[in-house]
Amino acid sequence: MAQTFGALALGLKNHDARLNFAGVLANRVGSPRHAQLLASSLPASLTWWGSIMRDPALTLPERHLGLVQATELSDLKARLTLAALALPEALRCFDQLPSMTFQTPTLSTPPERWLDGLRIAIAQDHAFSFLYPANLSLLRTLGAQLTFFSPLRGDPLPSCDALWLPGGYPELHLTSLAAHSHCMATIRQHHEAGRPILAECGGMTYLTQRLISKEGGHADLVGLIPGKAAVQPRLAGLGLQTLQTPQGELRGHTFHYSRLETTLPPTTYARNAQNEEGEAVYCKNGLTATYLHSYFPSNPRAAAQFFLGHPL
Q: Which range marks the domain in which residue 91 is found?
């Protein structure tokens, strides 16, 4: 790597002319000698900003869906401070770096208040935590009233017109989730009344009859979706996908290790970047369930339909 480091850096610099290339910083370097070899491989046209030595203390803990989330790390601030102090002094003096301006994205057409007054209950805890802040902001812009509850604590479903079960890690909390039968009963009652439910990824697996962890542990859960979901040792889905709706294209992504086995027939499928068949979407009596995580601002009107009970 030391011999090809300069070639790699030069290739990245020239790969996209739109990028303002400030220089090169080497990460996880093994020794001062290693850093010297890396620096000497750079052509004169590239600025060497220095190196960060390999240090286990700078590594953030991970699990099967990426980094352990910030709310679960009691020492996160100390970890980030240590990482900042590991930067070369030249990079800690930010006045030496080129200034950057990031434009706040805006919707091309301000959405109407399609959800005006609609009460949406949203699961949010360590088991259900994959929520785009932009999605929440858009729902409020559309007029929705958002209420949060915790299935992990056993909160009953709040009084609401629609329910959103986002992705997360229900497979890590099987015992606790299964113990709160009253919470699951209120979700079943909501569905029996024909009220809308959007269940994404982990939220969908929570609605299955049985969820099986990577280690083989299992729990019988809400049961609105016949069959089971089981966490696999290998990645089962990853990438950007789009969903065609009556309101146009809705963009999103998929990232999961579990597989769903169900007798419920898919209503439609998302498509990946190669226009191949992607994640299945299941619709049943107001319920929309899929592994796809939708980015609501990509099509506000389509996103609103999830909570009005007629998305597809």
A: 5-96
